[in-house]
Write a structure and sequence with these properties.
Radius of gyration: 26 Å
Helix content: under 10%
Largest sheet: 5 strands, mixed
Strand content: 35-45%
Distance between the termini: 39 Å
Shape: globular
CATH architecture of the largest domain: 6 Propeller
Number of strands: 33
Number of domains: 2
CATH topology of the largest domain: Neuraminidase
């Protein structure tokens, strides 16, 4: 009978004469290792429980699993990294076995991408749902997983980009999605009014909420335009065909409407329903923004609410009251850096990037970031068709089909924001030709990118994980 022996001189578990050796029989192959090696998988793991079996049981424990994958996982426990032989197995095969042994967290740590650096990022995968592959909306999760809406379906891909399941909704086209709970999605559609909650684990419809007002007949069949959440609340902006809109604050434990924010009426840009919502954990404030592109160019607003009092604590309209010194160059898109408490916007005419410190807001809080390297200056005709996303103290900008990043650099000088950011192109020329970038969102140490009329969601990671693959 073949065997694989551990000499005890591992990196993660140094030799210790007080540690007893232990023998395991996995699928007919004998493995000899140490108790400390098995216990390094965690106190709740199956391997730790086997290591602590009564000492009088001398016969090897038989485990009816794949011995070759077990050899990979045992090497992971010894050295805290995967051996080269792991390449012979798919991520799903490794994950399934790690789940069985209760050491998924160790495998996840070893397989997770490096810290996301926009300068070194490249495409490592394109996730393509099996049916209706063009994404209508998606949301990235903190562990690097992603929930993708395509048509009226939602497909979930876990931390290692394996397909965890797909559920069909009663909606025709989902345009906004947010993970309200670990296995519950809050969904908005342009085909049906209301905010809808679905349980991914059971693929079932939990509830639907609607904006109603018996005293106002204009409040009728309001559709959701944006969703955000906090640990206890869900925020959803609703818009009616009669130009009425508001934000509903929903208690996520009861799915009951707690209050209504920012009700407004009219067809002007400063009265539109928010197209983006972001909740700020540090202050508890809700930030909303809306952008309109019409015959006279771009216009829009940024507004900050205190959900506890329901009041607006700060706002700017572009163009309109509270104009910046760059009147006539309004925002094309805006996003919030939660970690740094910074707003970032792209100007629609010049294409310039501007930032504002949320802790020092005033009538004109914007600092316009400049690139001093002539070869890296913005050569685009403007900021139209641009999107911006702030993540991990970096600002990612999609201009048409190209992707760039503004990263913080330490130059040893005390100065304005423009002195501590440097611009670089993330993509190559062939990447920029894939199509117009529609949305950018970060999750874990990954960046997810969708493009107009292009199937699938691109996954970007730090460069040493590069090498394009397709996840079907």
């Amino acid at each position: 009978m073949p065997s694989m022996m551990d000499n005890g001189n591992s990196n993660s578990a140094p030799a210790n004469p007080t540690n007893d050796r232990i023998m395991l029989n996995v699928g007919g192959t004998l493995f000899e290792t140490t108790v400390s090696t098995l216990e390094s998988g965690g106190s709740d793991s199956l391997l730790a429980s086997l290591a602590n079996r009564p000492s009088h049981e001398s016969e090897p424990v038989f485990i009816d699993r794949d011995p070759e994958i077990f050899a990979v996982l045992l090497s992971l426990l010894r050295s805290n990294r995967l051996p080269s032989t792991a390449r012979r197995f798919s991520k799903q095969e490794l994950n399934d076995e790690a789940l069985y042994y209760g050491i998924e967290s160790r495998l996840r740590s070893a397989m997770s991408p490096a810290q996301l650096s926009g300068i070194d990022a490249s495409i490592v995968a394109t996730i393509r749902p099996a049916a209706e592959g063009i994404s209508s909306a998606f949301t990235a999760i903190d562990d690097g997983s992603v929930w993708i809406a395509h048509g009226g379906q939602v497909s979930v891909y876990d931390w290692n980009l394996s397909h965890a399941g797909t559920f069909r909704t009663h909606l025709d086209n989902i345009i906004s999605i947010c993970r309200a709970w670990p296995e519950v999605a809050a969904i908005g559609s342009d085909s049906e009014a209301g905010l809808h909650f679905y349980d991914f684990s059971g693929g079932r419809h939990i509830d639907s909420l609607h904006w109603t007002d018996p005293s106002d007949p204009r409040i009728y069949k309001a559709e959701v335009t944006a969703i955000a959440n906090s640990p206890t609340l869900v925020f959803a902006s609703f818009a009616c065909s009669h130009r009425e809109n508001c934000i509903l604050v929903i208690d996520n434990s009861t799915l009951q409407i707690a209050t209504e924010l920012g009700r407004q009426s009219g067809s002007s840009a400063k009265n539109m329903a928010p197209g983006k919502l972001t909740w700020m954990p540090e202050t508890g404030m809700l930030i909303g923004s809306a952008v309109m592109c019409g015959a006279f160019g771009y216009s829009g607003y940024i507004r900050i609410w205190d959900p506890r009092s329901g009041i607006v604590v700060w706002e700017t309209n572009e163009p309109g009251s509270g104009r910046s010194s760059r009147f006539g160059d309004p925002l094309a898109d805006v996003d919030v850096d939660i970690e740094e408490s910074v707003l970032s916007k792209i100007c629609s005419k010049s294409g310039d990037l501007a930032m504002a410190d949320l802790r020092k807001l005033g009538d004109d809080p914007w600092v316009y970031v400049t690139e001093k390297n002539p070869s890296m200056r913005n050569t685009s005709s403007g900021g139209g068709n641009s999107v911006v996303h702030c993540y991990r103290s970096q600002v990612f900008v999609g201009r048409e089909g190209s992707l760039e990043v503004w990263s913080r650099v330490e130059d040893g000088k005390d100065g304005e924001l423009e002195r501590v950011y440097r611009r670089n192109f993330v993509d190559k020329v062939k990447d920029s030709e894939r199509g117009l970038i529609r949305k950018i969102e970060g999750g874990g140490d990954r960046l997810f990118v969708s493009r107009d009329d292009v199937e699938g969601i691109e996954v970007w990671e730090s460069s040493y994980f590069s090498g394009a693959i397709s996840v079907l």
